[in-house]
Amino acid sequence: MITCSAPGKIFLFGEHSVVYGKAAIACAIDKRVSATLVPCSSVKIKIAGQYKPVNPKKNPYVAGAIYEMNKIAELPGFCIDINSELPSGAGLGSSSAVTVATIKSLDVLADTKLSLKEIAEMSHKIETNVQGKASPTDTFVSTFGGSVKIPEKVHIDFFDAKIVIGNTGKFASTTNLVSDVYELMSKHPDSVNCIMDAMDRVSRDGEIEIQKKDYKKIGELMNINQGLLNSIGVSTVQLENLIWAARNSGAYGAKLTGAGGGGCMIALCDENNIQKVVNAIKKAGGDPFVCNTTKEGVRVDKNNVNPE
Ligand code: MEV
Q: What average pLDDT does the structure give for the chain?
C-alpha cells in the first residue's frame, strides 16, 4: 500500500490581481488530500465504497495524473482511493491537492523519483488542461508547502498562523469570476488597474509585516484587501456576513480567499478568540473550521511497495 498526501492553501493576499501579474501571498494549510494505492489487476478508483474505472469526465485530475505518469513509466494495475479534508470547489486548492497527491503516489509506485519541481509543473499542466486556465499558485503551494510569494514562486518567511475558515457552502466557478473581472477591467481600465496596483501594494506591505510577525497589521491589510476585492465585484452578501461576524468577534482581520463569488473566507485569529470567531461564523450561516498554516508540502505517508 502507498499513501501520499498534499495540503490545501489559502490566499492571504492578492487573488485576482495575481492574474494581472501583481504580487500575491499564498500559504499551505494543515488540511490535506490523500491518495492511497493498493495493487489491482487493472486501474480503478474507489467511489462511494466501490472500485470503478477511472472516468476522465468524473475524475479529471486523477485521470490527468495517470495519463501524464503513463508517458514516463509503465504503471502496473492499481486501485486508488482519494480522501479529502478540504471542501471541494471552495477556493482552498482541493483539485491541486488531489493532483499533486496522485502524482506523488504514482511516482512512488513507479519509482520515477520526480523532483518537487517536476511534480509542481506536471500538476499545473494537468490543472490547465482540465480548467482551460489556472495560475501555478495552487499546485506550487500544494507541492512545496510553506508561505509563497507569487509571481516569483519563492518561499518567504513562514507565516505561522491560526486561521478560522468559514465556508459559505456556495460553489462558484473560478473561470467565470476571472472572466467577470476581465470584463470589468475592459470597461473601466484606469480605475480597475489602480485597484490591481493597490492589491499589489497590500501584498508587498503584507510580506513586510509577516517578516515582523505583526499580526495586527497583517489583519488590517487583509481587511484592506477585502475592500478592494469587494470593489471588483467578487464578494457576496454571504461572504460579507461571515467576514463581519469574524471581525466583530475579535479576529485581527478577515477576507475572502480564492476566486470569491461564494466559497470560503478566512479570519486571522489568536488562540484566545478562535472559539468566539468559530461561533460567530456559525451563527452568521457559515460552516467554520480551524486550521494552521504549515510548512509541509506533498509527503509520503505510507509506502511498503518501494521503501526508500
Ligand atoms: C483562484 O483561487 C484565485 C484567482 O486568483 C485565480 C488564479 O490565481 O488562478 C482568482
A: 95
CB 174 near ligand 1, within 6 Å: yes
Class of domain 2-156+296-303: alpha beta
Model pLDDT for residues 222-238, shown as the tens digit of each residue: 999 999 999 999 999 99
- Quote the CA–CA distance of 120 and 139 in Å, as a whole number: 6
Q: Which residue's entry shows cell 473561470?
A: 175
Ligand 1 atom, smallest distance to 14 CA? 5
Q: Is 277 in the pocket of ligand 1 (CB under 6 A)?
A: no
> Is 81 an active-site residue?
no
pLDDT given for residue 268 in this prediction: 98
Q: Report CA(112)–ligand 1 centroid distance (Å).
A: 31
The residue whose CA has the least distance to atom 9 of ligand 1 is 135
Quick check: 307 pLDDT over 70?
A: no
Fold type of domain 162-292: Alpha-Beta Plaits (3.30.70)
CB neighbours of 157 closer than 8 A, spacing ≥ 6?
A: 147, 210, 211
What does DSSP say about strands 43-47 and 154-155: parallel, antiparallel, or unpaired?
unpaired
Give distance in angstroms: CA of 133 to centre of ligand 1: 10
Is the distance from the beta carbon of residue 180 to the nearest atom of ligand 1 less than 6 Å? Answer: no
Where in the chain are all domains bearing CATH 3.30.230.10? Answer: 2-156+296-303
CA torsion, points 167, 173, 174, 176, in degrees to nearest 10? -140
| Backbone torsion region of residue 257, taken as left when φ is above 0, otherwise alpha when ψ lies between -120 and 50, otherwise beta | beta
Tell me which of 138, 180, 190, 197 is the catalytic residue. Answer: 138
Please state the separation of Cα 63 from the chain's center in Å.
Answer: 20
